[in-house]
């Protein structure tokens, strides 16, 4: 940081010297009180990752037992502000899952590695009761979602390396990276934090991937269009959660708040799914998803700065009979050898499906300035996803252990994360686990 001695050649006197305090945000006040403002944030999450490939994996047409890749999990900017007492604007722009394959590889065509960045959110919001946060009405492209807190996560503040993506239930199928065109209402009344939304989902035909094929297993409907209804509700026993930006839920407050919540949410859509059991026998099914959960994030010893984070949730996910979708985050593989189950390449596992899921996580924040003043501290964590999906012969188990080095809270942190997952073979119409693979990732996050 430059002082007056850098520019004027004269060091400050003892009387004029002021403490060197970092400003932690890029904010422009629109009035003298600061109640009207506009703010800009930037986030970059860089991954260095070693992955044990699922059987049959190929990378640019060569078999690969393992891969090492460097990528950008998320690169984002937010622009938002309270324009007047009642008017709020929120815009987010960025890219995701940018590695050497740029989210996909087509061996028969030229690729374009410059097409990833897009608007994630573009929302206008109106505060109905002046100076009261009882009711905010908004509309636009937004992540205001039902189902769970992890369906609309604040990715800059998550405790672990990544969020449980299965909770972003329709991601890149009938939405745009979990964002949808919606009209919503949200607010906080006493201990209750709520949001409800009427959503206009995108048709599966605009997902940018090959269309699913009709068969006895449910897929997203290729005919018809129906609105989606969503809701998420939190009962906050102690401190209230952050409520400034539309929809986003903080991952961990690092001991700054005492949060104990009971949460519930849902997503429902008429005739969202379809299956064909036999020629001429077409059945449309509603999509019905709901969850209940508890969330805790609170200090243990305020003087030392220790804190704990815990979550336990139960999810009922009904996408129609036998729906199952494999997915791998920023998949480092481009293809699969013949004879292996489709979609199982790289780090993919059956992330979404009709059935029931239990997800839990736990983390412990060690004392403040563990390595000396200004040198940060550590936060180890574990989490697990257990799923009973209709097309799996056994319970799916995804297990993760990790360690955050919080150099400057969430503004600068390193995360080392190990994930263990099963891989599968097909037995008739079902998938049976045949072994397990691991993935080790180092993330460096910078956020302001």
TrEMBL record:
Positions of region (Disordered): 1-20
Domain of life: Bacteria
Compositional bias annotation for Polar residues: 1-10
Protein name: Porin
């Amino acid at each position: 940081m430059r002082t007056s001695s850098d520019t004027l050649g004269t060091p400050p006197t003892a009387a004029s010297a002021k403490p060197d305090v970092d400003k932690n945000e890029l904010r422009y006040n629109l009035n003298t009180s600061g109640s009207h403002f506009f703010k800009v944030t930037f986030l970059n999450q860089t991954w260095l990752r070693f992955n044990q490939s699922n059987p049959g994996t190929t990378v640019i047409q060569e078999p690969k037992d393992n891969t090492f890749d460097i990528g950008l999990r998320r690169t984002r900017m937010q622009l938002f502000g309270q324009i007047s007492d009642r008017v709020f604007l929120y815009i987010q722009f960025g890219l995701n899952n940018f590695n050497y394959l740029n989210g996909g590889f087509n061996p028969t065509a030229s690729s374009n590695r410059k097409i990833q960045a897009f608007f994630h959110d573009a929302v206008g919001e109106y505060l109905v009761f002046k100076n009261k946060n009882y009711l905010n009405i908004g509309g636009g492209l937004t992540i205001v979602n039902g189902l769970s807190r992890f369906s609309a996560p604040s990715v800059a503040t998550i405790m672990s390396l990544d969020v449980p993506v299965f909770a972003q239930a329709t991601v890149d199928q009938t939405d745009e990276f979990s964002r949808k065109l919606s009209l919503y209402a949200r607010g906080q009344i006493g201990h209750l934090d709520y949001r409800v939304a009427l959503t206009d989902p995108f048709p599966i035909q605009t997902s940018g991937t090959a269309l699913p094929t009709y068969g006895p297993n449910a897929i997203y409907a290729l005919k018809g269009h129906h609105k989606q209804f969503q809701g998420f509700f939190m009962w906050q026993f102690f401190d209230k959660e952050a409520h400034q930006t539309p929809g986003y839920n903080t991952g961990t407050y690092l001991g700054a708040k005492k949060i104990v919540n009971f949460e519930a949410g849902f997503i429902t859509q008429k005739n969202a799914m379809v299956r064909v059991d036999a020629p001429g026998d077409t059945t449309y099914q509603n999509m019905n998803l709901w969850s209940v959960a508890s969330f805790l994030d609170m200090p243990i010893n305020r003087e030392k700065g220790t804190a704990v984070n815990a979550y336990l949730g139960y999810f009922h996910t009904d996408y129609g009979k036998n729906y199952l979708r494999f997915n791998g985050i920023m998949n480092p593989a481009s293809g699969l050898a013949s004879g292996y189950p489709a979609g199982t390449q790289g780090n993919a596992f059956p992330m979404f499906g009709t059935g029931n899921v239990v997800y839990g996580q736990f983390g412990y924040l060690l004392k403040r300035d563990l390595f000396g003043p200004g040198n940060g501290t550590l936060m180890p964590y574990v989490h697990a996803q257990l799923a009973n999906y209709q097309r799996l012969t056994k319970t799916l188990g995804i297990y993760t252990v990790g360690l955050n080095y919080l150099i400057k809270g969430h503004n600068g942190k390193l995360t080392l994360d190990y994930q263990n997952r099963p891989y599968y073979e097909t037995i008739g119409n079902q998938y049976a686990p045949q072994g397990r693979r691991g993935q080790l990732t180092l993330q460096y996050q910078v956020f302001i």
